[in-house]
Amino acid sequence: MTQNKKLQAWVDEIAALCKPDSIHWVTGTEEEKQSLLDLTEKQGMAIKLNQEKRPGCYLFRSDASDVARVEGRTFIASVSAEDAGPTNNWIDPVELKKTMKDLYEGCMEGRTMYVIPFSMGPVGSPISKIGVEITDSAYVVVNMDIMTRTGTKVLEQLGADGEFIPCLHSVGAPLKPGEADSSWPCAPMDKKYISHFPETKEIWSFGSGYGGNALLGKKCFALRIASVMAREEGWLAEHMLILKLTDPKGNVKHICGAFPSACGKTNLAMLVPTIPGWKVETVGDDIAWMKFGADGRLHAINPEAGFFGVAPGTSMESNPNAMLSAQKNTIFTNCALTDDGDIWWEDIGYDAPSHLIDWTGKDWTPESGVEAAHKNARFTAPASQCPVIAPDWEDPNGVAVDAILVGGRRKTTIPLVHESFDWNHGIFMGSIMGSEITAAVISDKVGQVRRDPFAMLPFIGYHVCDYLQHWLDIGTKTTADKLPKIFYVNWFRKSDDGKWLWPGYGENSRVLKWVCERCDGAGEAVKTPIGYLPTPNAIDRAGLDGVTDADMETLLKVDNSEWLNEAVSIREHYNNYGHKLPKELMKQLDELEARLKA
Ligand code: GTP
Ligand code: SPV
Ligand code: MN
Known about the structure:
This protein is an alpha+beta fold. Strands 1, 4, 5, 6, 7, 8, 9 and 10 form an eight-stranded mixed β-sheet that branches. A six-stranded mixed β-sheet has the order 14-12-13-25-29-26, sandwiched between helices.
């Protein structure tokens, strides 16, 4: 089925191991996708939604145990444990492969094995990379078809001797002859493995069908394995949105943003500015690959082709462009179903009807007292359907990055926005990022604050200290004026009575405006121990209701005693990273502390 001998040999090897009933090479045509959706519908895995309201849309409900990424079952199996570092789960690769081979043995019995050639980045672009996912899940195929460029055109690009990343996936639920399938087959938690072999650049995933565990082009390839390649080759693979911002005079800026899972990337990427004359267009909403261009600047591409967006909270009010992206040809997972075949979720912008089928398949009424959609319910929508997709979002050269935002969910301490003194200070900011853990991961610690450097904690394919050193090194590869400016933002500050102090969403454009001004050497700022902060009137509040001067003061306050406590906690965090922590970062921390005490 392919001219590529290495690929054919791998497919043969996996078929012999997993013993599927049949093999299907994915061609990536519309007809093929439709027939797979028809099949999942016939098998009772998918529900075809009301085709007048949601043409080409389907709803899937996962098993109640398989609703998000499983960080506790995600492994970086480098040859040496030291190379995986203190933040990753490590298992010796020989041992892990043995364990997993036993699990893979016969795991596709009674099922079809799909071979999905896919390209991260536009097919044929010099910065794109090819992967091939083998999976026994039709759900994965139809999602990969939206999230990446798939099929015959990729095989052609691969040719006889092109390189690809092998990505093996099984839901881990073989079927005996005549055995009825479950509507969401998966394996129990202790049999789930999301494994990465950084030296041989292989991905082996077993037992989960959900999101980042199963759509292997996304977190497994484009972040964990790509971060290893990026370090080797001198570029960056990051958990970042990419947006294009145009001011009323037509000046364009490109901004990347690293926020942890479910902390606002999709929302910021397609934001509708509330300040007149400003325009945002989307380049990417989750992942950025950044490389130096001939101009000595960092250029970013979005390696994906779709959005795997958080559904709850998405509404025509909060994120109309996401709602419009998901109007057709979209796969919904773990959303609630209305009696007329539409979807519903919490904070969709209108009240729930009197009856729904909830994400677990049970009858639901507003009196049920439980959420109708899972908190990590998602929509998978083609990026091309986004009304504000940037015309050059598929430019193989990427977009030149002017600013990088870092930030997470912090109720206290961290101001609305502050700017780093320079690149290294910006890397320090990225390294200390803290955020509340969200429902995007299965964890008993949801809501607790954890440090999540550059929103990459679960996605760095190697030692976190080497990762931070790599960021520092990138800063030495060009002149300071060509590097993006780095800003730390926090949309999630709360008042003492638990209310959001900042309205967020479209109003975040007011902060982006200041960011642009700062990039142009303008914008009023005051130097504080933690960085440059906007002066009280530097953030444009014209037409903004509900944010008082007092709120603004809190949002832009640097409380030295709170920050001294923060510094203690950062030191603890750094100590957990061990002796490989870049000296520059410890120096940054010492200097911060000294400035706070001065
Ligand atoms: P992943 O896809 O998991 O990587 O998430 P993400 O970073 O793209 O997050 P997303 O934009 O989907 O937002 C997640 C949740 O945060 C949603 O429920 C949003 O409604 C909410 N959110 C996004 N932006 C803001 C904001 O500016 N303020 C507030 N208060 N909530 C926000
Ligand atoms: C995230 O958790 O950051 C996501 C969703 O974008 S998943 O694809 O499941 O990783
Ligand atoms: Mn993400």
